[in-house]
Amino acid sequence: MKVSEPIPQKSSLVLAWRQYRLERKIFWRNPSAAFFNLMLPLLLLLLFGAVFSGNKTYLRVIVPGIAGMGVMASTFSALAFNLTFLREQGVLKRVRGTPMPAASYLGGLLGNAVTNACIQIIVVIFVARFAFGVGWPHNWLELGFFLAVGVTTFGALGVAFSHVIPSFDAAPAYVNAVFLPVIFISGVFYDTKGAPSFLREIAQILPLTHLIDGLSAAMVTGQAMSSQWGSIAVLAVWGLIGGFFAVRGFSWDERGN
Amino acid sequence: MSTIQPAIRVTDLKKSYGSHEAVSGLSFEVAKGEVFGLLGPNGAGKTTTVEILEGYRARTAGEVEVLGLDPGKRPRELREQVGIVLQSSALYVNLTVREALSHFASLYPTPRDVEETIALVGLEGKEDSRSRTLSGGQQRRLDLALALIGDPELLFLDEPTTGFDPQARRAAWETIRSLRALGTTIVLTTHYLDEAQALADRVAIIKDGKVVAEGTPEDIGGAKAHRSRVSWRDEHGALQSVDTDMPTKLLNELTGEALAAGREMADLKVSRPSLEDVYLDLTSETVDESV
After folding, report:
1. A252, B82: Cβ pair inside 8 Å?
2. Same domain for B124 and B166?
3. How far B253 CA sits from the closest chain A CA (Å)?
4. What is the sign of the dihedral through the CA atoms of A46, A51, A56 and A59?
């Protein structure tokens, strides 16, 4: 082996930060992705908000609903899309052949998704406050907590779901087949209390319902976190299931190789 | 000790997928600083072998050492010293050439200079172009640049010139030669036998997961494969050929007979079998089986 002086390795944290910066740069250079990630929830909020602008009760449903949808879109949907693309293009394989530690690389990707989720929540809060006169969130700490639980759960589920998607061509169909029913059933656009009982029962199993409940408590109703343990437990179970399959099924290479 | 250690040592390597044995007892060594060509028909186990050396796949049995380390454990120290050019150009399409190289350079402890790397692969003038706007050949050059940016001791090239036009191929060959001159050890897999002949110091021919021949492109296949062939056209215009270990004696006899009979031996030539002849001879059964 070489007798030369040992060369210091770059720390995993520094490399994760570099990857994160790179992902941000790439994100802004792909206008369609930036649009769907950031503008679509905003557009929906503006449309629904304008239609029901006089209806304070409805606004109190739609604001946390759109916030929850934004979290799911920017973590679950975006990661399932991106990982399928990166795997199919061979970018994951290329990265695997460099000194980049796996945790740093995936940390950079997840950080990018979390940043988008945060941007969405902030946009929703500001639009709700200044366009529709909904007040500032009641409990910022609680909001931060549910945001953290939400991005973790849906991030893990997105990574796990990318293993099921056979190709990038099929990715929009697979992601929307999950995303669209979930946002409708989970009460993004209406209060689930008024839904038929079978839909209510399905909604009680889905993680987005519970994320929206938590966000609703933090943003509009002001209910304490202690009243949300049921929701936190359901999100945690989904997060653990997602995490298990995300790690277990992870492949750096295309299927069949 | 450190100077005689080979760059790669593979001993009795085996890799099975279920009941199918893709690599069955493969052994070879690659010396430091040499260009080593791995040849073989599709499905012979080339890619599996190279991907085990690169750390992408786990082996079933056998010993593998790359730069003194076990690629199966994927040590970061090894990944810092190895550059890999895959068959597909997996690029960040929205990054410029310089941005992509700067990013990957930051992953290595002692990277090569970005501008120097751009010059080495001949991408001058394209530094600020996004990858998506590059031609296919330029993308492959960026691929190579990304493999070189860490200043690797060992470089894996998987079919580096597939799909190139003849000029681009010559240019790529020149780059590979200049890398060799810089002391980089190179493992090359290729379908093109002229490429192996032009670039490789030594080649191994793989068939059914085993090395069937190993040596310099000139000597591979042993003495039997390198008998001289004397060929000419007879008085009816038919091509005749005789293989011999003693071409001088044979030529003397043949030309003596022809002179005595007042005949001209048209197209008379003495040739040695090319790498392609040896390759086809050694691998032809596999081709038959797969048809």
Report:
1. no
2. yes
3. 58
4. negative
B205 and B68 in a single domain? The answer is yes
| Domain spans, chain A | 13-248
Q: Does A2 touch chain B (CB under 8 A)?
A: yes
Q: Give B150's contacts in chain A (Cβ within 8 Å).
A: 98-99
What does the block give as tokens for B215?
């040596």
Residues from chain A contacting residue B80 (CB–CB below 8 Å): 7, 9, 99
Between the CA of residue B30 and those of A33, B70, B186, B204, what are the distances in Å?
Answer: 46, 15, 9, 10
Same domain, B230 and B188: no
Q: Which residues of chain A have pLDDT under 50?
A: 1-3, 256-257
Question: What is the band of B222 on the pLDDT scale with cuts at 50, 70, 90?
Answer: low
Domain endpoint, select from B200, B215, B230: B215
Q: Which residues contact B157 (CB under 8 A, 6 or more apart)?
A: B85, B144, B147, B176, B186, B187, B188, B189
**pLDDT value at residue A224:** 77
B101 plus B207 within the same structural domain: yes
CA pair distance A39, A41, nearest whole angstrom = 6
Number of domains in chain B: 2
Cα A85 to chain centroid, rounded: 17
Domain identity same for B209 and B226: no
Torsional sign, CA A214, A218, A222, A223: positive
Chain B residues with CB under 8 Å of A88 CB are none
- Cβ neighbours of B84 in A, within 8 Å: 94, 97
Q: Does A93 contact B at CB distance below 8 Å? A: yes
Q: Is residue B1 part of a domain?
A: no
If asked whether residues B169 and B233 sit together in one domain, one would say no
Nearest CB to A1 within list B2, B89, B90 = B2
Asked if B109 and A26 come within 8 Å (Cβ–Cβ), the reply is no
Closest CA relative to residue A96, chosen from A105, A84, A108: A105
Q: What is the pLDDT of residues B184-201, one digit of tens each?
A: 999 999 878 888 888 999
Flag if A89 and B90 touch (Cβ within 8 Å). yes
Residue B3 within any structural domain of the chain: no
How do residues B14-58 score in pLDDT, each as one tens digit? Answer: 999 888 888 999 999 999 999 999 998 888 888 899 999 999 999
Same domain, B94 and B113: yes
- Chain A contact probe: residue of B52, B76, B102 with most A CBs at under 10 A: B76
For residue range B236-276, what is the model confidence (pLDDT) as tens digits? Answer: 888 888 888 888 888 888 888 888 988 888 888 888 777 77
Domain presence at residue B102: yes
CB contact (8 A) between residue A1 and residue B68: yes
B111: domain range? 8-215
Query: Domain boundary residue among B189, B215, B241?
Result: B215
Measure the CA–CA gap between B247 and A79, rounded to whole angstroms. Answer: 68
Pick from A3, A29, A98 the residue to mutate for testing the B interface (most B CBs within 10 Å).
A98
> Is the residue at B272 inside a domain?
yes
ipTM of the complex, rounded to two decimals: 0.82
Coil, helix or strand at residue B138:
helix
